[in-house]
Amino acid sequence: MSTVLPRARIPRVWVISAYLGAIATAEVLTAYVNAEAGLAVHAVLLLVLLNHAMALGPLPIPPAGRMVSEPARVLVPVLALLPLVRLFSLTMPTRSLSPLSWYLLIGAPLLTAVVLIARYIHYSPVDARIWGWSLQQGLMAATGIPLGIIAYVAFHPVPAVKSHDIPYLIIGAGIVLVFLGLLEELIFRALLQPYLCSLFGATRGVLITAAMSAVFISGSRSPLTMLFTFVVAAGYGWLVYTKRSIMGVALSHGIIGIMTILILPNL
Question: Domain residues of the chain, as ranges?
């Protein structure tokens, strides 16, 4: 006779807050103190989050067009994506590759993880309407041009490639658009933010998501860069919260990357 194990209780708000704090601490540790120690903490957090998600058991399938009604349960597997971002970015063998290849090598498995987590939590991009397009989304996308100019002038980022070969730059722009702009917005604005807003409230959820975005740029060791990222991410977050679609902000994010590491350095 088989025994059915009881399902673990739904995580409390303080548990999710503790996970967020631990991830942020690991990121700061990686950037400012010791990269190996930070990676070790990220690896432990990844294992803890995945095992916690397994202990919570399968998530209920929500009605069409609605999210799972237990955001704290959903956030446990979703938060596992954040340590994975750093583990992939610092452990992939990218030294002998061009910077553009870094985005491809790191982004491809990370995008696979995003798809798997989305399936696990029964997240439907169609039902969530994140692919919606309108004139407003086009105007949001266009903000990437002035923001990219500001970021380049203010922070002088390292160019991904020094080349005037148009086909190569077009391919590079596609890689940056997908594996920088779209991928990061899928993680932070499409998957993480809605459940943080459901758990903490709209304003706090948007600001917490923006803060996590800023923390993940701490490798720049520039408080000004982190502040710029926080402000832009908060703007993106509020636009996604009110409009639901991530298309405009994903394109804007990708255009910032294209401007700062491909176009402006080659002028």
Answer: 13-266
